[in-house]
């Protein structure tokens, strides 16, 4: 009777070590109906040597518990980090090996988009094997190649799943001084057969063969929560949570049976290094949470510690304890889905296009990876502050593992004021005033040459790149079709009838939706302490649709409490991100050593102060006015910018003078010398943010010429900012 390698498919991990070790080539790896590789023995050629049983990682796996060391690591080269799935630790190890004329083996795509282990011996080829592939790789003859190279006394780095590295360890059956084995924190491997079906499906759907697929695209600085792929016609980028294959994978429908009883879900392994994503970095080292990834690194051997000493000067790192790194896959295997068997039966008989249709429409869809969150805010307004606060909230949520999107809700009252012939829709604004302002705005826009169109272009580009991509637009009557379960309304003046032409029910979550379960107000603002009394009844009714409330301004709390509701006070979303995060998307101006003036309403005192300061400091004044094209002699206009350029001008200014809330906020974030002139009707929001940071002395005092040069104790300010930020983050974690 021949050798039986396994009794149950859950006892075979498909590493291929048995095929590689067989002296008579009696074992071949073949695909089953689920698309996984399993060894098949040709009994005619089998000599019962039992070598295949010896090398199997699932037979008598044991490891000697050594003293592990734990690190959080970021490659100093941000370009490499962006190309990597985590913090770029693999690239550091690969470079070390290649510089010693060594060879790297890791998973990459072949010309047919199959995932295979590749041999790399040049640093410029590392892009071929960087980044996570949520697919089991085929080893081919990698084990044999590694053994040959080691006999030639070449350095070798092998990176793979824990079962693959254990298979190599047993195949070699001995220690090699120049072999470096690195395993991954592995969620589980998915079916190569289903992956190939998905590649063919995408190629047909988008009429072009897929030539690259990135499971962890980090261009949005969202810790790799985006997918991108390239075919011969172009590139597509979208949320990881919207990708069909990833939905199947993370719902545990296409994971190999053996992964659900994996013995390697522990911090103790026979490899030299274990690497993966550093989960919870925002709690352990929040200053390292920049959305570009941090690697978890565990060293298991003296060899690993020796190599670590050579490469640690090329990275930013910190040491930590075992309790800091424990994540689910270092404790227990991924659980098997109850619907896995059903799905696998369906996929084995039906074309993938039909599977995709069934999955999106059926009960499989209801088993969510993560609640889908829709943000309702002022993203559609061509206003830099409004767009940046939307970016801040979306980015924070996505970087903390939430499936969040901006709902592309487009109210006429917000966009009409930016048309070539602007229409200002404000409560009580008569037809004559609307016509007068429209003509005035139109005249200003057409006499500005191409400046109007350049500014619209910059706004549009930022919105598409960072906020909405190509999300469908929604009108009020279409909100029922929105796919989100949780809605976050805010921030900005979403509850200000002056801005939205009366109270808009949508900004209270007051609309019918089949999937809506919860509405959360985050840093909502009325622009003032209270609304005009004739709005009270409407406001009270609309508040009933909001489950939990937080406000941006402390002074508005009593008004909310008047209606029997509690409200927290939290920071505007722009404060959720540190200045390093804003540096990543800003566009710096060519101008240097200037005074920046940003006005949301005309203020003669502010202009006079700016002129006096410019004369005293011998600096040029640059003037930004967000809406009409007001001209002030002696000030250079800046009226073509979008949000990215807005950030750059504030960041690079020597002095900032403003009556704008968000310019004040970014002056605090970038720690600028600034002075605030209170807005005549909406000064509450400025007072509130200054009070939270202990910066009330930055409010202009008539007759105090040198006030802007008063020294700011930024250490104290940022400590207060951190406390407020922690409070805001707790609110979001508790309710989202």
Which key phrases capture this entry?
single chain, 736 residues, alpha/beta, 27 helices
What would your notes on this structure say?
- The chain is of the alpha/beta class and 736 residues long.
- 34% of the residues lie in helices and 17% in strands.
- The chain is elongated and about 95 Å long.
- It has an eight-stranded mixed sheet with strand order 5-4-6-7-11-12-3-13, with helices on both faces.
- About 1% of the residues have low confidence.
- The longest helix is centred in the C-terminal third of the chain and has 22 residues.
Helix count, DSSP H or I runs of 4 or more residues: 27
Overall pLDDT score:
89
Uncertain runs with pLDDT below 50, 5 residues or more?
Answer: 363-370
Cα radius of gyration in angstroms: 30 Å
What is the count of β-strands? 24
Instruction: Look at the helices and sheets and give the structural class.
Output: alpha/beta
Largest sheet properties: 8 strands, mixed
Q: Taking strands numbered 1, 2, ... along the chain, how are they ordered across the largest sheet?
A: 5-4-6-7-11-12-3-13
Distance between the termini: 59 Å
Fraction of residues in β-strands: 15-25%
Oligomer: single chain
The shape, in one word, is elongated
Helix content: 25-40%
């Amino acid at each position: 009777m021949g050798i039986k390698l396994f009794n149950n498919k859950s006892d075979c991990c498909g590493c291929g070590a048995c095929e590689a070790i067989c002296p008579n080539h009696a074992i071949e790896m073949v695909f089953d109906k689920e698309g996984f590789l399993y060894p098949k023995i040709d009994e005619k050629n089998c000599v019962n040597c039992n070598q295949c049983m010896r090398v199997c990682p699932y037979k008598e796996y044991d490891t000697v518990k050594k003293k592990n060391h734990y690190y959080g690591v970021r490659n100093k080269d941000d370009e490499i980090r962006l190309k990597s799935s985590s913090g770029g630790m693999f690239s550091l190890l690969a470079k070390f090996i290649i510089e010693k004329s060594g060879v790297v083996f890791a998973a990459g795509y072949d010309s047919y988009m199959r995932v295979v282990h590749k041999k790399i011996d040049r640093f410029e080829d590392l892009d071929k094997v960087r980044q996570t592939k949520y697919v089991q790789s085929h080893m081919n003859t990698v084990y044999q190649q590694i053994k040959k190279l080691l006999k030639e006394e070449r350095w070798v780095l092998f990176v793979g799943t824990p079962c693959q590295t254990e298979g190599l360890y047993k195949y070699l059956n001995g220690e090699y001084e120049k072999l470096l084995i690195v395993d991954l924190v592995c969620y589980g491997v998915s079916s190569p057969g289903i992956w190939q079906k998905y590649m063919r499906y995408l190629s047909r759907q988008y009429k072009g063969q897929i030539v690259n697929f990135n499971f962890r695209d980090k261009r949005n600085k969202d810790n790799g929560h985006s997918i991108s792929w390239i075919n011969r016609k172009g590139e597509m980028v979208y949320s990881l949570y919207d990708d069909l294959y990833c939905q199947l994978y993370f719902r545990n429908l296409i994971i190999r049976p053996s992964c659900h009883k994996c013995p390697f879900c522990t911090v103790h392994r026979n490899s030299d290094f274990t690497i993966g994503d550093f989960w919870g970095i925002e709690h352990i080292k929040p200053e390292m949470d920049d959305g570009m990834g941090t690697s978890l690194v565990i060293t298991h051997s003296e060899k690993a510690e020796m190599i670590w000493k050579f490469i640690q000067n090329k990275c930013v790192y910190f040491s930590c304890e075992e309790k800091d790194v424990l994540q689910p896959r270092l404790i227990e295997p991924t659980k098997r889905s109850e619907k896995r068997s059903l799905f696998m039966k369906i996929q084995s008989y039906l074309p993938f296009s039909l599977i995709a249709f069934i999955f999106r429409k059926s009960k499989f869809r209801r088993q969510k990876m993560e609640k889908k969150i829709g943000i309702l805010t002022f993203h559609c307004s061509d206003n830099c502050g409004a767009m940046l606060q939307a970016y801040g909230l979306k980015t924070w949520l996505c970087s903390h593992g939430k499936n969040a999107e901006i709902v592309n809700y487009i109210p006429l009252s917000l966009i009409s004021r930016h048309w070539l012939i602007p229409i200002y829709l404000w409560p009580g604004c008569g037809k004559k005033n609307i016509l007068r302002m429209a003509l005035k705005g139109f005249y200003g826009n057409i006499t500005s040459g191409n400046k109007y169109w350049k500014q619209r272009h910059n706004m549009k580009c930022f919105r598409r790149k960072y906020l909405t991509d190509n999300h469908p637009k929604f009108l009020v009557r279409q909100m029922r079709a929105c796919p989100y379960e949780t809605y976050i309304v805010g921030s900005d003046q979403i509850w200000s009838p002056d801005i939205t032409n009366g109270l808009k029910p949508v900004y209270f979550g007051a609309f019918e939706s089949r999937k809506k379960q919860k509405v959360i107000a985050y840093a909502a603002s009325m622009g003032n302490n209270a609304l005009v009394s004739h709005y009270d009844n409407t406001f009270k009714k609309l508040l009933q649709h909001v489950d939990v409330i937080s406000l941006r301004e402390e002074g508005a709390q009593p008004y909310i409490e008047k209606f029997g509701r509690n409200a927290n006070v939290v920071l505007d979303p722009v404060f959720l991100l540190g200045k390093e995060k804003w540096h990543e998307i800003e566009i710096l101006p060519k101008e240097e050593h200037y005074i920046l003036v940003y006005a949301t309403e005309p203020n003669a005192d502010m202009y006079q102060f700016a002129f006096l300061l410019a004369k005293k400091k011998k600096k040029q004044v640059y003037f930004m006015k967000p809406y009409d094209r007001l001209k002030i002699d002696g000030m250079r206009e800046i009226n073509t910018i979008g949000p990215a350029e807005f950030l750059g001008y504030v960041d690079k200014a020597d002095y900032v003078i403003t009556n704008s809330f968000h310019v004040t906020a970014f002056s605090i974030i970038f720690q600028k010398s600034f002075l605030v002139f209170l807005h005549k009707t909406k000064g509450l929001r400025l007072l509130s943010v200054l009070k939270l940071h202990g910066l009330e002395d930055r409010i202009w005092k008539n007759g105090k010429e040198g006030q802007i040069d008063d020294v700011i104790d930024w250490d104290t300010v940022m400590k207060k900012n951190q406390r407020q930020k922690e409070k805001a983050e707790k609110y979001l974690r508790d309710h989202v």
